[in-house]
Amino acid sequence: xxxxxxxxxxxxxxxxxxxxxxxxxxxxxxxxxxxxxxxxxxxxxxxxxxxxxxxxxxxxxxxxxxxxxxxxxxxxxxxxxxxxxxxxxxxxxxxxxxxxxxxxxxxxxxxxxxxxxxxxxxxxxxxxxxxxxxxxxxxxxxxxxxxxxxxxxxxxxxxxxxxxxxxxxxxxxxxxxxxxxxxxxxxxxxxxxxxxxxxxxxxxxxxxxxxxxxxxxxxxxxxxxxxxxxxxxxxxxxxxxxxxxxxxxxxxxxxxxxxxxxxxxxxxxxxxxxxxxxxxxxxxxxxxxxxxxxxxxxxxxxxxxxxxxxxxxxxxxxxxxxxxxxxxxxxxxxxxxxxxxxxxxxxxxxxxxxxxxxxxxxxxxxxxxxxxxxxxxxxxxxxxxxxxxxxxxx
Length: 394
Ligand code: CTP
Hints:
This protein is an alpha/beta fold and 394 residues long. It has 13 helices and 19 strands.
């Protein structure tokens, strides 16, 4: 299991296509990468630091003289797992080829040993100029991957080879370099998400704070990696999930029924849903008048995971635990009691995690390769759990 979230440096050159890299940044984040943007100083004429800082959630520097105490050209170069330079102008390509170090980005390129993908975009005459042709040939001979720009209409009226490739094509190329390829093709991943609602009467229910964001992140990540995804969604938004089979459920019993039916066919179950542990003994068909609403008698719901563990035949089972105290001990006990292969435990005291874009906690597994995660995106957690699953599935 990879020990940390994968770090990417997104270098941005001074081409009009810089604005398209905003979308590229988003897609990288969707795939669970933590991205630091390093624009060249002149690229800020096209997209400014404020945009990059807002989108990446990280500070943006262009020179080695910014935040000197961090020695970013060394620390960032060492921290990065991958470099993606998009768009790369003729000038930036020439500077990298010559080994120049006249801004932070070119310093980083010299100082890093991480794999590097360069995505050129420029006027066709500049792309075909013998100097650029020679520079690109040199970079490729040094092991850098330089994409071919696309042929088509440019910003002005000219056309030819020089267009910035489609984001999807860049991501596909990037995946082939990072090894984050479709490693779950043919695997059936069953995910539960959201929070169950236990009806009191037609209007009221007992529910919980789960938003379903983590289950969405898991489903998206599994789809990206080529899996067949079935999401059993309890009271959550599933709008952004084209490509997954979705079964909407309301209560714990609904969820149990669907999961019991689907579990035998799956390779991996990720039980992300917050299942209500108890339900009202009586479900009234008419709205209860407030004068009678003084107490609600409850009875336990089935422990779905524990029941699925009884019928398990080689499926990998990953659970979640939201705790407010004694996190690790409770989660370890649940790992064993529920027959799980791994569990992600997070501290939800003081309203943390629920509804947020980030999470922090710990992945505990039967094999003992535990991973502590400090403030990572839910997408990043999804990919880490799927890395674990892919590793176990072989
Ligand atoms: N879970 C389940 N069925 C339940 C309750 C929980 O399958 N009735 C699953 C959850 O989806 C989660 C894991 O069990 O993956 C742990 O859930 P959690 O609520 O932390 O544990 P509980 O068993 O409910 O224990 P407690 O509420 O006492 O901490």
